[in-house]
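JOB MANIFEST
job_type = single_chain_structure
chain_count = 1
residues = 413
[input]
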Amino acid sequence: MSTKNRLIILLTLFFTFLLLIFILLYSCSNIFITPVKSLSSVSKKNEWSMFGHDLSRSRTTGNSSLTPRGSLKWLFNTGAPVHSSPAAAGGIIYFGSRSSFLYALKARDGTPVWSFRTDSWVDSSPSIVNGIVYCGSNDGRMYAVDSKSGKKIWDFKTRYGIFSSPAVADGILFFGSEDSFIYALNAHTGKLIWKYKTGRNIISSPAVFEGIVYFGSMDGYFYALNTEDGRCLLKYKAYSSVYSSPSIYEGTVYVSSIDGYLHAIDSKARNWILERKISRPWMTLYLYGDLPIPPPVSGFLWSMDFRENTASSPLICKNRLYTGTGNNLAAIDIEKHEILWNFRTSGWIESSPAGNKETVYAGSHDGCLYAIDSVSGKKRWEIRTKGKITCSPALADGVVYFGSHDGNFYAIE
């Protein structure tokens, strides 16, 4: 072999090696595109401007001296079931209904400010950012509406319905769709920045933390994507559909799968190269005794099996996690991984709880909204409606807001 040919072979091997190193670093690290850590925010004081209160979906106001006592302040009838969870900002309450309308009501007395008609159910929950209301509809469109006038600014069409509730961070709007994609749009113009396809439809509402967007899919996986370019950093196997939305607390992501497992996932974890391709054959060979036990799934910290179907999303406050599972509202010590108490209702709890350090609020398919002492698990009060409650309550200025499938929207003080 000539010297020239040897040189060509050596250069080919060298550049192939560099390419493999680049692919490895790009896939398993943030060296080339670092997530923007400023992409995290919270609602203003005494407001609840998005589903889950903030971009980490904590679902809590933390410390609060304003605690509702269980008296009806006002009621508004939409004429159709209300699944959309409310948002509260600037003295206005925003929510959708299966009447096909997005509503804006005065928080003071429930007087309508405006209503915006879509072409189908509005089960998605609104987010309010810089005077714009963002909300999806079962007509497949994500809408941007002026918060004062109710006039449409823009809309973006997906192939199927949108039940996922949007998150807006640093001018980028994130949401999932029934068409199996997670979308990132320019929040000002509605133009597509990127989209990422999962294996099935997305009901889960994304959370954003330190430049990474987290969400689940009905394909049985939980995802972490770089907000800048949609690159997948972590694809965590939950082994069952992920209907619920994540909540992030002190660097750990908590999310439930429909089979009743609560998953605690490292927010900084990344899949090792080829993990998803070789993990299954590795496990098979391990079971036959041909290989050592494979490493745990990337991101896995711990899990808990509730042994009940779970669609509720967790609330986290002061190292305690609260979530609905089956007919129970459960409180978990996230340091000891122990169940502290269960409060049992007469129906499935699909509603995601909201609250503060004193009281947890959650709806049930039995038609009641419950106020539960966060420490003891004892009932403080309940409000009974004439339909199941699937939306998640919002807490603002000492008032809890929620809708029911009886077609009414409630304000409780």
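[summary]
Helices lie at 3-28, 275-287.
The chain is about 10% helix and 40% strand.
exit_status = 0
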